[in-house]
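Table 4 source record.
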Amino acid sequence: MIDSDNRHNGNPASPPSEKCGEALLSSAYFAPIQWYQKLNRYDTCLIEQHDHFVKQTYRNRCVIAAANGPQPLTVPVERFEGLKCPMKDVRISDHANWRHQHWNALQSAYGESPFFAYYEDDIRPFFERKWTFLYDFNWEITLKVCELIDIMPCMRRTDGYVTAVSDGTDDFREVIRPKHPGADPDFAPARYYQVYQQKFGFLSNLSILDLLFNEGNESVLYL
């Protein structure tokens, strides 16, 4: 767990940012830039683990910029009994050798990016080791990405499903979604270098991997 007592203070590579209250976020697989913006800007971030798993969300999907345009990468999950399953109980499936496919897709999309080779050894293990639960997998990814982009948020798991959001807590669980994003006046994506921008134009709010592989240690400045 990343604790507030261990935050960086005065690191010249990380400009001071104004922290504000508490954010409530859904778990996410190599989450979009908007999601990491919240980790960087809020005093505390609660990562929901008791909500119901929803298909076609960032819980098990990220979007990268590939040679043919935006490409979603989806982690397959095992079937569960009933219509609903808490996120913390969702199990990862080994269907269709997805780890190999995702890693190949990243190599193809970002092999020529400025910082892919620099971070390759940090990211590859997530496609070699097997995790049982999707939530735990996403949590470990988040810890590593925070380390790589040099942010140390106060981040903790929810103890139960949060139904009533208290004053000072901003709920982004239904805001940061791939198909039906909600209103977020605090997020206005700025342009940065992308490998295929001359072909497709700038693609906003992709997976944090897109920012990391293209901007490297300056990713924190973007956030």
